Amino acid sequence: MSADLSLAPPRRGLSLHSGIAIAGGIIIAAALIQFLIGRNPICPCGTIKVWYGDPNGPEGSQHITDWYTFSHIIHGFLFYGACWLIARWRRVPFSIGLALVAATLVEVGWEMLENSPLIIERYRTATVARDYLGDSILNSVSDMLAMALGFAIARLSPVWLSVVAVIGMEIVCAWLIRDNLTLNVIMLLYPIEAIKTWQAGG
Predict the structure, then answer these.
(1) Between the CA of residue 66 and those of 19, 40, 63, 75, 76, what are the distances in Å?
(2) Cβ neighbours of residue 44 under 8 Å, at least 6 residues apart?
(3) Contact call for residues 100 and 151 (beta carbons, < 8 A)
(4) Which three-class secondary structure state does DSSP give residue 43?
């Protein structure tokens, strides 16, 4: 998967440096929009922590990193893989810079949707996160950067290592906190009571 995405002459593609600059601008714009619509810049507790390890604690999704950071790293692997497959199957010009911008737009779109009243309420009713209030802007930006980290790792890694990394993160999170990206998607789209009971410690 680490092969070059670009199937077009270099002059027609978006360079990596340009892609990073545009992606950075998109993330800054997303943070500004969240601020303007009233999202909390940092945890309401008034502190900033590099790591917050209680997945069901009152400060979940408020600090720089937490257990769900791994899900956003996996997003980066998946988005890179999707761009790679599109370039391979459709044989369309798809430079690495353009792929990064596309991945960032998708991630930002999810962050904005995730922090909408509709999805916040969905988390509160369909999952064990009954007290979920959405992400702080700090956590949201960190999630976007975690996606970019996953994208970069996928870019530099062979396919087998990317697959092992994704599976490993999913297994570790399921084991330690009874949640991961796969379970998160299942519970949002089609809640299963047995999973909810297990996640609650039953």
Answers:
(1) 27, 17, 7, 15, 17
(2) 62
(3) yes
(4) coil
Burial of 77 (0-12, 13-18, 19+ CB in 10 A): buried
The Cα–Cα gap between 42 and 48 comes to 7
Over its length of 202 residues, how does the chain's per-residue pLDDT go in tens digits? 554 555 444 445 789 999 999 999 999 999 999 999 999 999 999 999 999 999 889 899 999 999 999 999 999 999 999 999 988 887 776 799 999 999 999 999 999 999 999 999 998 888 877 778 899 999 999 999 999 999 999 999 999 999 999 999 999 999 999 999 999 999 999 999 999 999 988 6
Instruction: Using alpha carbons, list the distances in angstroms from residue 123 to 7, 30, 98, 130, 134.
Output: 41, 22, 32, 7, 9
Question: What whole-number distance in Å separates Cα of residue 43 and Cα of residue 45?
Answer: 5
Q: How far apart are CA 42 and CA 8, in angstroms?
A: 42
The encoded tokens of residue 177 equal: 């906190």
In sequence order, what are the residues at sequence separation of 6 or more whose Cβ sits closer than 8 angstroms to the Cβ of residue 164?
Answer: none
Structural tokens at position 27: 């993330």
